[in-house]
Amino acid sequence: MLCRAQIVGWPPIRSYRKNSLQMYVKVSMDGAPYLRKIDLKVYRDYPELLKALEAMFKFAAGVYSEREGYKGSEYVPTYEDKDGDWMLVGDVPWDMFMSSCKRLRIMKGSEARGLGCGV
């Protein structure tokens, strides 16, 4: 009886299945000299994602409300969607965010004016 070791990487995984396993996006912060890359599928909701970003970049996002956006912070978490528009993190339901987020940017509050509701 012939015993063969399975070839690493076989059977091939189609690209659409690879993409469904992980969802890496780049994260930048105004004033920070480096970028990070995170897997969004690790997080279950906005509070969990924001907590991780706050720890990663050593900032406080403040309190989010639909009417006023983020209050109590110099920095505002934003994201670029599939259409290339920048929006506040938290403006859309989590599932919609997960399917449309291309990259994240933590920008200064003064630059985020006009995004979302009342920033």
TrEMBL record:
Entry-linked Pfam families: AUX_IAA
Domain PB1: 22-109
Keywords recorded for this protein, A-Z: Auxin signaling pathway, Nucleus, Repressor, Transcription, Transcription regulation
SUPFAM superfamilies listed in its UniProt record: CAD & PB1 domains
GO biological process: auxin-activated signaling pathway; regulation of DNA-templated transcription
Subcellular location(s) per record: Nucleus
Record-linked InterPro entries: AUX/IAA_dom, AUX_IAA, PB1-like
GO CC entries: nucleus
Assembly, per entry: Homodimers and heterodimers.
Record family assignment: Belongs to the Aux/IAA family.
Function (record text): Aux/IAA proteins are short-lived transcriptional factors that function as repressors of early auxin response genes at low auxin concentrations. Repression is thought to result from the interaction with auxin response factors (ARFs), proteins that bind to the auxin-responsive promoter element (AuxRE). Formation of heterodimers with ARF proteins may alter their ability to modulate early auxin response genes expression.
Name of the molecule in the record: Auxin-responsive protein
